[in-house]
Automatic annotation (TrEMBL):
Domain DAHP synthetase I/KDSA: 14-256
GO molecular function, a single term: aldehyde-lyase activity
Lineage: Bacteria, Bacillati, Bacillota, Bacilli, Lactobacillales
Enzyme class: transferase
EC numbers: 2.5.1.54
Protein name: 3-deoxy-7-phosphoheptulonate synthase
Residues of the full protein shown: 63 to 328 of 341
Alphabetical UniProt keywords: Transferase
GO biological process: aromatic amino acid family biosynthetic process
TM helices/strands, residue ranges: none
């Protein structure tokens, strides 16, 4: 098993133009809006993201929305705006590829491919990104076990792409009245023990409520995550997706200060 520490004891370190992820390279911050909403908005959010110490700008251009009647993303225009915003700030870029049909165009723009929770076991998509020479951030499916996640990663590795980043983003549980998902903090040290891949924790999608994001981001740092991916928005009430979990700039800057300070003590 290529993802196993037994096969490959040293940490995998992923190097991008502005970022290194994993190993002893320190905490990686990935931040940005859930969706790219406009050129102007994503550029403003990129500046906030950078101020908080993020080196990777996130934003969805092709969105996997629960309802087909909600905002589906700006598509290729969104990719362009996110690329420009990242370049303007000297940041790397991550965005989701939802299907094989869009893989080539997403690859034209992005530095890191994101495979969403809903696609964690889309084996044809996993095989397709396994043949690509760019890092892949693989999110844990909402009802996937740790072994399911590791097997999904194995599909990517089997194709020859070893630049894999795992992401815990919360799993379905029974208390979704208070938290969107159950943030599986205990999976983090387990994953770090079993695999050599970097781990990026996503407290935004785990919690669904902005006020739970900072404590859970800090819990992930304490649990050994190599980085955090977090959604930000200057006007969450008007956000086109995932507004309730978005951190406003001030809260975001406070969170990142605490997260980097905590990481320094570990
Ligand atoms: C996202 O990152 O905006 C997203 C849709 O995440 P997930 O696949 O974890 O739900
Ligand atoms: Mn989102």
């Amino acid at each position: 098993v290529q993802g196993s520490r037994e096969f490959h004891p040293e940490d995998t370190v992923i190097k991008l133009r502005h970022t290194t992820i994993g190993g002893d390279t320190g905490l990686t911050m990935m931040s940005g809006p859930c969706s790219v909403e406009s050129e102007e908005h994503v550029k403003a959010m990129a500046s906030v993201a950078k101020e908080g110490g993020a080196t990777v700008l996130r934003g969805g251009a092709f969105k996997p929305r629960t309802s087909p009647y909600t905002f589906q993303g700006l598509g290729v225009d969104g990719l362009k705006y996110l690329r420009e915003a990242a370049d303007e700030q000297g940041m790397d870029m991550i965005t989701e590829v939802m299907d094989e049909e869009h893989l080539d165009v997403v690859l034209e723009y992005t530095d890191v491919l994101q495979i969403g929770a809903r696609n964690m076991q889309n084996f044809s998509l996993l095989k397709a990104v396994g043949k690509v020479d760019k890092p892949v951030l693989l999110k844990r499916g909402m009802s996937a076990s740790i072994d399911d996640l590791l097997n999904a990663a194995e599909y990517i590795a089997a194709g020859g792409n070893h630049q894999i980043i795992l992401s815990e983003r919360g799993i379905r549980s029974f208390d979704s009245k208070y938290t969107r998902n159950l943030f599986d903090v205990s999976a983090m040290p387990v994953l770090k023990k079993l695999t050599h891949y970097p781990l990026i924790a996503d407290p935004s999608h785990a919690e669904g409520h902005w006020d739970l994001v900072t404590p859970m981001a800090l819990s992930a740092v304490a649990a050994g995550a190599d980085g955090i991916v977090v959604e930000i928005h200057d006007n969450p009430e008007k956000a086109l997706s995932d507004g309730p979990q978005a951190l406003k700039p001030d809260t975001y800057l406070e969170m990142t200060r605490k997260a980097f300070a905590l990481a320094d003590t570990l």
